[in-house]
Amino acid sequence: MKSILFSLSLLFLCIAASGQENKVVKKAEKINAKSQEISRTSEKVKEQANQVATNTKTVVQNVKSVIKIFEPIFAIHFKKKNKGVRKEAGTNNEPVDNRQAPAEPVLTTAPVANNNTGTPPQPVVTGEYPPVANTASAVAQQAYSDPGVPENQNYNPDGSANWGNQHNAEYGCYLDAVTGTVLFGGDAEESPTSVDLIFLAPNDGQNTYYLVTPGFAHDGSADCFWGSCTTNNPTRSWKNVNESEVALTNMTGAQFEKIQYNTQLSGAVKNARGFAGWYSSPGSKLDGKVFAVKTEMENRTAYALIYVVKHVGTSGSSGHLKIKIKVTGFDNNGDGNPDVSAYEVRNN
Q1: What is the pTM of this model?
Q2: Contact of 297 with 264, CB cutoff 8 Å
């Protein structure tokens, strides 16, 4: 009898243990399923996070593609009562938002070589730059509502700067293209890495005009451009210089005025041919010409277009160029507009 009771007890214990084991197995299966679900959710979250990061990068790239160019003369060298907000003529002075990405500039042109000997070729333009997007009238009808007044005699009310030759006692012959600053010899010598281009007109009776880069002048190649080959070349004593490049573009002044965005400016610079350390124009003034300038140094990068509005005088003490400048826009806060502070930092 005792043996039977013992056997029954053992059987009940085995059944109970088996039932508990089944519960443990089922619980383990549930935990495993939950773990897999969490893992899948984690992967999905990770995938979504990566997608957000990709989208953010895309947005940033899109914002950067519509950054406006910088006009340093208006922005830095004009004293303004109000901030000079560009407004559309004929619309009750309502601000116009032009921040819609334009197409790349399209020019179907014959390349213009940088002519260092002989008569420079005439620009041949058979294409047209696209109009600025989202405007109610032509760019030529736009104006700054409050451009202010020029800070000194180096700058004119139309937004041009007076860039003298080396004989001009009123206007300097050194140009900082990034900030649109015209410098005399003393200032240029103190800050040589701020100089991107030099305007020279030897008074040898030949009426040849030169745009010379600091790197080209510094190594002595431009010694004879200063007047005679025995004239002192001030750049020889500079310790550091920008090895910039210059080229004549086939743009017109009207096309220059239409350039409003970085994509347009970079396209115009890329279309220029024959970049070199100097450009010469024997016996022909520079009126109406548009030049592309590249400075690519470790601590300074600048891409600029320089439009010669008027060439005044020749190689004498009154000789100078009235120029307008547009450079790459640097946008720190992502609003599509260049920030003046970025240019002040880059000029130091």
Answers
A1: 0.67
A2: no
Find where tokens 């002048």 sit.
217
Cβ(139)–Cβ(132) below 8 Å: yes
3-class state of residue 279 by DSSP: strand
Alpha-carbon gap, residue 249 to 289, rounded angstroms:
8
What's the rounded Cα separation, in Å, for the pair 20 and 75? 82
Which ranges of 191-324 would DSSP assign to H, the alpha helix?
A: 214-218, 253-258, 262-271
- CA separation for the pair 153, 295 (Å, rounded): 27
Per this entry, what is the length of the chain? 348
**Distance from C-alpha of 114 to C-alpha of 272, rounded to nearest angstrom:** 9
The sign of the torsion formed by the CA atoms of 140, 145, 151, 157 equals: positive
Average pLDDT per consecutive 10 residues, the chain (348 residues; last block may be shorter):
53 53 54 55 46 38 65 86 44 40 44 48 38 36 60 92 96 95 94 95 90 94 81 88 96 96 93 95 96 92 94 95 94 83 60
The answer to whether residues 187 and 337 touch, using CB atoms and an 8 Å cutoff, is no
Q: How many CA atoms lie within 13 A of 176 on its CB side?
A: 27
Token code pair at residue 320: 């100078």
